[in-house]
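Suppose you are handed a protein chain with no further information: no name, no annotation, nothing but its sequence. What can you learn? This example shows the usual starting point.
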Amino acid sequence: MSLILQKKLWYDQESIKERKKMNKHFIAYVDGSCRANPGYAGYGVYGYIFKESTKSKNIKHPTYTNIYFTELGFNKEKSINNIEVLDILEVVGSINDHTSTNNTAELIAVITALKLATELLDIEHVTILTDSNYIVTAYSDNLDKWINNGWKNTNNKEIVHIAEWKYVYLLLSNLKEKNITVNINWIKGHSGDHGNDTADLYSVIGSNAARVQLNSPDASKQLFNKSIFYKVSTYDEYRKSTEVKDFTLHFKELYFSSSILNDVNYCFLSNSDKVHMNIGKKSTDSIFAINIGFIPEFINKIKEFYRSKERNYATTCCMKLSKLVDKNKLRLFNFIDVNYLLVKTGDNYSLPNDTSPFVFDLLNDFPLITNINTTFGNIKDIYDCVSQNLVNENYFLKDITDLFIKDNKLLFTNKDSVIDLSSILLDSNINTVIKQKLLVNIGYDLPNYLAMKQIEDKILKIHVIIERNRESNLASCFFRIITTDREIYVTNITNKFLIK
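A reasonable first move is to predict its three-dimensional structure. Written in structure tokens, the prediction is:
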């Protein structure tokens, strides 16, 4: 019987019936990338192992609630039969050769998936899904002919990529000896399919890694085919790896100096990424904070990497945290070198499959009323004064913990928007009286509910700090949140109050 199975649509219902008697099944999405073509090439494999089960288990994707693991790949509908997802497999690889092509990368992705299949235990069927017409057509229509014709095409010339196709044939033979059947099926690329999109992302990371490696001082020592990320996870392990959470990630932007500083415990945060849209207007986009203490390690890695960029000036740099909302992309910073995850685009760096800047120099003034350095400098002055217990007649501090938290639980919900602090103005220790009511807007003056919820079990104290500006006859409000692993100072750039 021929090794080559006829090409069929990956959602063919007949294939479902055929698999009912099978033990374990391996589905692998594969993709190759090349920038340019030929050029820097990489490949990605993203797949999972499942088995038939009396009851479905582990079938919902951990981060995309409308996507399911099914018998035929990722789908928005559940499987026809009950299955249990056992493991998730991920591979990112680089091809360190300036002359590699996209088809080379596509083939090596297939080879990688087949090699994985030969190493897996109790696998009875393998489905490889690719968006490469070249791969599917060659596999379904040409491979047997090439073999019978001594690896020559119809023109009696040696086929292109002969070494790779011979390796594919060898792996197929090994799998056949183990009674493992193989399908290589076509799936439309860039169509919103989670598996294909993820394999594409991994291949782009691989091609970027090839660019980095081939331009490094030790390029001659790089392996031709190098796996930079290989991981086999149980469903629970994979789910936990997507649970990347931190207070800082509830802000849209992070700022840092281009100078080499010992600021691994400092994080300057803002929500103001809508340039020029909120000038002079108090909103959720005009809140600023300094996070002092715990900071996710990957943030400092990105800062360190970007600071290594050659420049003859010192400036403020911006990191677009809002681009890390996709947890599947965010989790990769815990496994893959930052050098490979940041793609050079002109003078800036972008995330894979995103051409807009992720980290860049902020050469212009901040769009909201004042320069960003002035804003954060003011908050830093407040921190220095309060943390060192310096006497300053223009600063007034009041403990308001009891108004916000009790037994490590927030006293407000996501439906609450305003908390009235006017009563603290009557305190004898505060000799400045504000004309207006002192109303605190959640998400405006304080971080939003979800950000506060992230740290509620660690909050020790919350202080309000009123800063009086004698020259302008205005007062500003700052909030100090003390937790077990950090201090956070927050203000809204426009929260000015008239002094009576």
